[in-house]
Design brief:
The protein is mainly beta. It has 8 helices and 31 strands.
């Protein structure tokens, strides 16, 4: 399932968000706009496994990967799952509505969504035997929906056909649009997901209507069914919830899958643990039963373990609790050791002290306008869409001049551009803001000067 729950799921009725997920009967859900409510939603909907790095809920164990998570759908067998939410800025259908030329619309796509998509295309490099799923609100229509034929069906919306590059690039990489696999004719089944009638129903004047939420798949996967979750009486809605809680309809697709053998895996959930609370350590080694797990400070060797889990995490008990009360806040890694003591996998996590604020630091002074700005942070929250942005002092929270997303990391360094599409940001006093999970909530600020 892919589900944009609309600014934390609290705009209408949070309980209805959980009800929609339960009604879908989905095994894995990619959530967008969780705004820090992912674990709360998992509890309300009855899902045991949560991945805050990708905003995933699942009925099966989740192991942290690189671009994707591994979901262990059977003991020792996995599928790869990724989730995204591409930028809504410079939204193409609205530009078309307002009279923009095709060249300008495609140029906007190249500036906004294509750079965000390109890293995800590396999912196609996974072995051909790997079932891959990519969910998301892509904030772009499909090239399969904006054809010459559909222009005659929807002349007010589709002023000219567009080969939308996001969906075309995904198809070129071997991904399949599950909804269009089931319903290949957009004239017969358009599958609109934006915008839902919300609970009223209500549509804003001049609203654009389109299909922008997708469940993509690749590999040994057969698509059996695809359904739309939305408001009662909504166009093409298969599963209705009243009141419907979001401005996006959700998509839930059903597949027959041949899972692949799991590699050596170790993972800690949640990835950022509140100090004093327990975390769950989970591991798997397909080659032996004598493996073990140790905990080290980030970057340290296994010999420098601060904690050994030989008793609580074993081949016969592949998941066990990690108490954090005795550990200092900071970054750690769980290391999976083979029977001979050789390291075969490691995964990073952090212990966060909630009494300490998020810290921002610019390691160099005197940044010149137009040059990249290096920013460090620590004691981060660990949400998928935590970000650091450049703002004019006193500007509204939605008016970031530039920003960088932190990939659910507790600490690190990012590079933020000090140029926009209109050129370098003017010299002056600005401020950095740490924003929680794509919400308006400011966790920390830091003034700085551009010369």
């Amino acid at each position: 399932m892919t589900f944009n729950i609309w600014y934390g799921g609290e705009q209408v009725n949070f309980a209805s968000v959980a009800e929609a997920i339960r009604a879908s009967d989905a095994d894995v859900i990619g959530i967008q706009e969780s705004e820090g409510n992912l674990r709360r939603l998992a509890a309300a909907a009855g899902y045991a496994h949560v991945d805050t790095r990708r905003n995933l809920l699942a009925r099966f164990p989740i192991f942290d990967g690189d671009l994707h998570a591994w979901v262990m759908v059977r003991p020792g067998e996995v599928v790869a799952v990724a989730n995204t939410h591409l930028s809504s800025d410079l939204y193409g259908p609205e530009s078309v509505r307002d009279g923009a030329a095709l060249e300008a619309v495609l140029a906007d796509e190249e500036r906004s969504r294509i750079p965000e998509l390109r890293p995800l295309l590396k999912l196609a490099d996974l072995p051909a035997s790997t079932p891959i799923f990519l969910t998301g609100d892509f904030n772009t229509p499909s090239h399969r929906d904006w054809t010459v034929r559909m222009q005659s069906q929807r002349p007010a919306a589709i002023r000219y056909p567009i080969e939308w590059p996001v969906t075309r690039l995904l198809e070129n990489a071997g991904f399949r649009d599950s909804f269009r696999e089931v319903f290949p004719d957009p004239a017969q089944r358009p599958g609109f997901t934006w915008t839902a009638g919300m609970p009223h129903p209500y549509l804003r004047p001049r609203e654009t209507i389109d299909r922008i939420d997708f469940v993509w798949t690749k590999g040994p996967v057969e698509t059996l069914r695809s359904e739309i979750v939305g408001e009662p009486g909504g166009d093409g809605v298969d599963i209705s919830i009243n009141p419907y809680p979001s401005d996006h309809r959700a998509v839930v697709s059903t597949f027959r899958v041949v899972p692949t053998a799991a590699p050596a895996l170790v993972s800690v959930a949640p990835r950022v643990v509140t100090k004093g609370e327990d975390a769950l350590v989970r591991a798997h080694d397909p080659r032996s039963e004598g493996w073990r797990v140790v905990i080290v400070r980030a970057g340290a060797a296994a010999a420098n373990a601060v904690l050994r889990l030989e008793e609580s995490v074993t081949a016969w008990r592949p998941a066990g609790r990690l108490a954090t009360r005795s550990l200092a806040s900071g970054e750690y890694e769980a290391i999976l050791l083979a029977e001979d003591g050789k390291e075969i996998a490691r995964n990073r996590f952090a212990i966060r002290d909630p009494a300490l604020p998020v810290q921002l630091l610019i390691p160099v002074t005197g940044t010149r306008s137009g040059e990249p700005l290096r920013v460090r942070w620590s004691n981060g929250l660990g949400n998928k869409h935590d970000s650091i942005g450049i703002f004019r002092v006193g500007a509204a929270v939605g008016d970031a001049l530039a920003r960088g997303y932190l990939d659910a990391r507790y600490a690190g360094e990012i590079v933020i551009p000090t140029s926009t599409a209109d050129g370098p940001i003017a010299p002056g006093i600005y401020e950095l803001r740490f924003l929680r999970d794509d919400s308006p909530t400011i966790e920390a600020t830091l003034p700085f000067r551009l010369f």
